[in-house]
Design goal:
mainly alpha; 0% strand; flat
């Protein structure tokens, strides 16, 4: 058994660390809403590229019907 208890947890933790390394922090604050939204979208896309496959791979162990939710403000159960 690994430090976190399972190999799956280690793979998840690795994916989160790799995704966090992709987050870009601007050197200066965005000048307007459009620049802010563009920076947020770029970070969302960068981390989703890593996290989606890693988390989707974990779904077979999840309850039936589990899936990726593209709605960032999802309503929940």
């Amino acid at each position: 058994m690994t430090r976190h208890g399972t190999a799956a947890a280690d793979r998840r933790d690795d994916a989160v660390r790799r995704a966090a390394a992709r987050v870009r922090r601007p050197e200066t604050a965005p000048d307007n809403r459009d620049e802010l939204m563009a920076a947020l979208r770029a970070n969302d896309e960068a981390v989703t590229e890593i996290l989606r496959p890693a988390l989707t791979a974990a779904l077979p162990a999840a309850p039936p019907g589990s899936r990726w939710n593209d709605d960032e403000h999802g309503a929940g159960p």
